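Protocol step 4 of 5: obtain the predicted structure for the target chain.
Materials: sequence only (see below). No template structures provided, no constraints applied. The aim of this step is simply to have a reference model before the mutagenesis design in step 5. Sequence pasted as it appears in the construct record:
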Amino acid sequence: MHPILVTVAGKDIHFYQVVYPLTILMGVILCVRRAKKEGFNEELMMGALIASLVGVIVGSRLLDVIVNFDWYWADPVRIFNRKRGIVLYGGFIGAVAGAVGYTKFKRHPYLPFQDIASTYFGLGLAIHRSGACFMAGCCYGAPTDLPWGVIFPEGSRPDKAYGGLALHPSQLYEALLGLLMFGILMAYRAKKKERAYGEIFGLQLGIYGVGRFLLEFMRGDASRGRFGFLSTSQWISIAMLAGCVICFIYAGSRKKLVSAGKLKPAGVFAARV
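Step 4 output (structure tokens):
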């Protein structure tokens, strides 16, 4: 953990402040380039990405308020605290909602956009968790006796929570999950002969849903909230797995309609590039 990247004119610039926006910028560039290759309108893609970014900001804060409602209720001004509210799952849900709303407004199919964005989600996750979360000391893990357990610096949030015990580097676990997901989705894109729109999105939901559900057992930050015997994120992970199944059922039904001559392939099958 090393939260400060550089000090300029007496002002500390944190890794999080640099890595987070750069990850977003990288995602935008990659998505727009992919949209161009696949023959989609680049301006439409940019508009959907902007709508997604707004959704990230709103969704990440909204889920944090829901999970930590009592804390916010005690002092509602805390809603405007810039150091709070970066909840990944909330941001993800908000991003999807923003893109759905924008594409519906433009009367454009949503799944082609989401398939492109989903392809690069894992890469962005890997950079964000390792370069921002791990360096900042947030999203930390539970105590562990494993040889790669991490002891965070005195005074950090993990140290205050567990008193200098070695913890699971859950941020790095999730970064590895992101890289695995990115590799699988890129390979699926390249080798699947007839890939229907929605399959990439469904695969991303499935991989991340399973991975995040398991990783939650190694998380140690209590602020994520719990409902019953599972964490908030685990319940959302279960919903993502359901979304994965729905995506593949939908894609399969569309393929059958094409085979029956009731739909045009151009609206169902993704371009191979």
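Step 4 remarks: Residues 54 and 96 are 10 Å apart (CA to CA). The chain has nine helices and four strands.
Proceed to step 5.
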